[in-house]
Amino acid sequence: MNALAEAVGSFALTRWVSRKNRADFERWQAAALRRFLDRDLPRASFYGKAPPRLTDLPVTDKALLMARFEDFNVHGITAAEAWAALARDGRAGSLTVGASTGTSGNRGLFVISEAEKYRWLGAILAKAAPDLLWRGMRVAVILPQNTGLYEGARRSRLIKLAFFDLTLGPERWREALETFNPTVIIAPPKMLRHFAVECFRLAPKRIFCAAETLDPVDRPVIEAFFRLRLEQIYMATEGLLAVTCRQGSLHLAEDSVFFEFEPAGEGLVTPLVTAFRRQTQIMARYRMNDLLRLSEQPCRCGSPLRCVDEIIGRKDDVFRLASASGPILVTPDVLRNAVLKADRRIDDFRLVQIAPDAIELRLPPSLADDAAAAALQAVRSLLEGRGTTAIVTLVRAPLPLETSRKLRRVECRLEQVP
């Protein structure tokens, strides 16, 4: 395997596809998907043979994948073997093993080959920073855990990559980060906001948020501090799913993933993903747990790839409440907007469903009492308008930076019903 050839080939393919019109792109994508279904998918024992159509395949999810992990990867590696490899050095022979951070305690595994690792590197460079690549890049990745995905970048002569462990806390590595002086920063929005509030000495040319939902309340703080547009990388165990273009639109990675969408109410959708460029761990019609709002307009950048207006959050964090007319669902974006629109002085909060009929609104003591009261009334009015009698309680308490878990300003802590 020639690592450089894999990365360069993927970079070139990604750039070439982005210049097609939508009709030509869809023909290319259909041919690539068909090759995947005929050649790669049958190598996983869960499937065994090529289907006539993608929609003939069953819908899968994380629970099924983890229960039958060996049936979804072509080498038959069991979940126990993958966890053991991850605990050692993240290697299972020639393969790299990684895992999601597990927002709700339910971590997902993945295995990829060396070739796939470098294809991923070429694709993300083509999407995120093609203009910076030839000038050399110092990339700081600030995430809860390191994975073998970044090894390819470390070995490149054009990229210097440094990983900073979010779980250790910024006080442990602030000096090292500032000394590294990154030209590109990839970090959760809460950490980018922390850099702004604490006035870190950083002057990157590009900033990307990743690993958490970007709430509108964070964007102006981050952009004002760095004097840059905040961009996004939407990536999960399922692979690279979307990257912001230079016009600021978040484009789905349809050049490597085929998306189907299930309506989730309120104009939102949940994606089913088929990663047609993955050959080691097969993901076909895999149901994700995210809520997206799709854009209805093509991007001015000319890319044929569809855009996402907003990644709303996790489906598990939809509030499920009782009403006289039956159960109702309230999505995270609706709840978040009710709090933020109540008063302009509100720039942080937590809204947590702790019981079927009980919700806590947590606001910092430094917020003015009238602003807190307005937010409480806004949430109560929203829920009353939906016909629910849930009790909303105001809690005044500090909202410290948490590095051990993902930030979820709207969170449902009820046990999920299958």
UniProtKB/TrEMBL annotation:
<dbReference type="InterPro" id="IPR042099">
    <property type="entry name" value="ANL_N_sf"/>
</dbReference>
<dbReference type="InterPro" id="IPR012685">
    <property type="entry name" value="CHP02304_F390_synth-rel"/>
</dbReference>
<dbReference type="InterPro" id="IPR053158">
    <property type="entry name" value="CapK_Type1_Caps_Biosynth"/>
</dbReference>
<protein>
    <submittedName>
        <fullName>CoF synthetase</fullName>
    </submittedName>
</protein>
